[in-house]
Amino acid sequence: MKGLVINETLKAWHGRRIGLAMIMMSILILFIFIVAIAIDQSFGLLLTTEEFVTIGSVLHIFIMLYSFVLVTGAISGEASTGTIKQLLIKPVSRHRILLSKWLTNLVISFLLYCFVLALLFAFGLFFPHVVPLSSTFFYLVETALYTTPSLIFYVALATLLAVITKNTAVTIVLTILPYFFADLFVLLAAEYDWASWIVFAHIDVFNNYNPVSLAPPPFPSMWASIGFLLIHIALMLAIAHIIYKRQDVL
Amino acid sequence: MKPLVVKQLSRTFKGRKVINDLSFSLDRGLIYGFLGPNGSGKTMTIRLIVSLIKMDRGEIFIEGKDLNKNREEALQHIGAIVEDPDLYTYLSGRQNLEHFARMSQKPIREERIEEVIDLVELTSRIDDKVKTYSLGMKQRLGIAVSILHEPSVLILDEPTNGLDPNGMKELRYYLRRLAKQDGVTLLVSSHQLREVEVLCDRAIVIKNGQAVDEFDLRSSATESTYTVYVTASPEAEAHAQLAQFGNVEKNESQFVIYNQSYEQIPTIVEALVQQNVRLYEIRCEQGLEERYFSLLEQERDER
Ligand SMILES: Nc1ncnc2c1ncn2[C@@H]1O[C@H](COP(=O)(O)OP(=O)(O)OP(=O)(O)O)[C@@H](O)[C@H]1O
Ligand SMILES: [Mg+2]
Questions:
Q1: Hey, which of A56, A141, B187, B194 has its CA 20 to 30 A from B78?
Q2: pLDDT (tens digit per residue) in B253-279
Q3: How high is the pLDDT of residue A85?
Q4: How many folded domains does chain B comprise?
Q5: Domain check: are B262 and B152 in the same one?
Q6: Which chain B residues touch A87 with a CB distance below 8 Å?
Q7: Which of B50, B73, B104 sits opposite A89 (nearest CB)?
Q8: In this structure, are B231 and B209 located in the same domain?
Q9: Residue B83 is part of a domain; what is its CATH number?
Q10: How much of chain A exceeds pLDDT 70, in percent?
Q11: Residue B280 is part of a domain; what is its CATH number?
């Protein structure tokens, strides 16, 4: 399994250009930083570290999108280039191969998210702070942890779709659709009592269970909500594994 | 124990029997040609043997291990290139080899990687990205990947595709060496009958997913039969002379007579010359092409 994880990391790094993605993220953060400085200068607003970090955390959208690219590249990308054939005729079970693919790319996505948050924090230090830096840091760690369930959910969804469609573009589009439109759907369904049983209502764990948030959470307990998400994740991954195991590779 | 046994293999695709009750087995250390017209099911058979697709019915044993029951144990003895040698073009040749080395059951040492690089003569380009390789170099790297774990059965699907004459000659040389020195059993699908004739010890012919025939290509000169092609004039006289040796066919300006023994050839020449027939060309071929076509003819007649 260790060898498989090394392989997937190597292919993600060289094939999906993680280095380039990191540079792009850094440029985006730099851009936000420059805009923030410009606003500071021209309006005399004094932006704080914690405000800068909060603004910058919109970048998690890019991490999500990039995680779709990583997962689908590893699964359907190898199917379309044909390299999957040589991979699947080696004496390793298909379960392990699929597991190594989504797990490695999930961990890479999470680490990239941590990298972005760390960089945001570093740039934020140029601004004055009101709250102690340690609590801003803690806030970032918390953000990373709260985002994990939704990251895993979307990685599982992308895995399932990549296995079924074997097509990179289709998978990315189908995964992005719920990412952008699920909130709207949940909002429209909100008046019915089954709305809290829509899995997408549970994805944004952070805002759902934030004491200051306006809307009532879908479930009374955050852990029940996370459990509900995990059931869906497990189901999607189980289906993906079963299909992958049986699929004909032509 | 036979290195590869295929028993009553069947597979239906979209309601059509693509592989239909196919059985054959390979003897150790021999090179088998795998022949058949386009769409006869050669690639499908190979996909079934390496478990890329599932069989509907049948059994496959690789080194005695049942593919349906002990997939990983069976697969560790096999190496294959199915259709194209698809490799990671964004990695270097060496990174590709290391990648597949990490997937082997028994550990593969650095020296083994160097050894296969030497064998396929890619030493000077091995650290370049595969996307900069020529087709022949990709083929060679593909072979290096498939023999890395020292399989005892090696299956190659049209390996000479895109190779230049020199590349083909070298490939033939490595494959022979694998078979003779290391006792590897090879199954090589190809459309190049001439290639098969010079490379292989035996040939398996399939048609419509069924094995039609299997025969030896190394029987000694005296036993096997030849097809003789003659260009001569005047044609009427030549035809008359040749007719005593068997059924004569006229093929453009050439006469063709099948199933002649090696000893018969000088007699044919003598007969023509004695009747003052002017002989422009005489060429003899040792049967694969003829045998292959006559097999497919028979099949066509039966349809
Ligand atoms: N993806 C597919 N789906 C359905 N049928 C297929 C598919 N690929 C191939 N076939 C069918 O399976 C049969 C066997 O094809 P196969 O590719 O094994 O032939 P082949 O002997 O390798 O031919 P070639 O010499 O052209 O490579 C053909 O009739 C073909 O139409
Ligand atoms: Mg083929």
A1: B194
A2: 889 888 788 888 899 999 989 988 999
A3: 95
A4: 2
A5: no
A6: 103
A7: B50
A8: no
A9: 3.40.50.300
A10: 98
A11: 3.30.70.980
CA of residue A214 to ligand 1 center, whole Å: 60
Residue B300 lies in a domain: no
CB neighbours of residue B90 within 10 Å:
16
From chain B, which residues contact A within 8 Å (Cβ)? 47, 50-54, 71-73, 75-76, 78, 80-84, 86-91, 95, 99-100, 102-105, 145-146
Q: Is residue B207 part of a domain?
A: yes
Neighbours of A20 (CB within 10 A): 9
- Candidates B232, B234, B233, B294; CA nearest to B259 is B294
Least confident of B48-52, B172-176, B187-191, B261-265: B261-265
Q: Are residues B122 and B211 in the same domain?
A: yes
Among B68, B87, B90, pick the best mutation site for testing chain A contact (most A Cβ within 10 A). B90
Under the banding of pLDDT at 50, 70 and 90, the label for residue A51 is confident
Cβ contact (<8 Å) for B47 and A249? yes
Burial class (CB in 10 A: 0-12, 13-18, 19+), B274: exposed
B33 occurs within a structural domain: yes
pTM exceeding 0.80 = yes
pLDDT at residue B89 is higher than 70: yes
Burial degree of B20 (CB within 10 A; 0-12, 13-18, 19+): middle
Task: Give the pLDDT score at A177.
Answer: 87
Touching check for A211 and chain B: CB below 8 Å?
A: no
B92 & B164 share domain: yes
Residue positions counted in chain A: 250
What mean pLDDT comes out for the span B195-224? 80
Q: What ipTM goes with this model? A: 0.88
Q: Are residues B13 and B156 in the same domain?
A: yes
Residues B155 and B173 in one domain: yes
CA distance A182 to chain B (A): 36
Closest partner CB to B75 (pick from A7, A89, A249): A89
CB contact under 8 A, B99 and A93: no
Domain-located, residue B292:
no
Which residues from B are below 8 Å from A250, CB to CB? 47, 52-53
Within this chain, do residues B173 and B129 fall inside the same structural domain, yes or no?
yes
Question: What is the domain range of residue B93?
Answer: 4-216
Statement to judge: residues B160 and B258 lie in one domain:
no
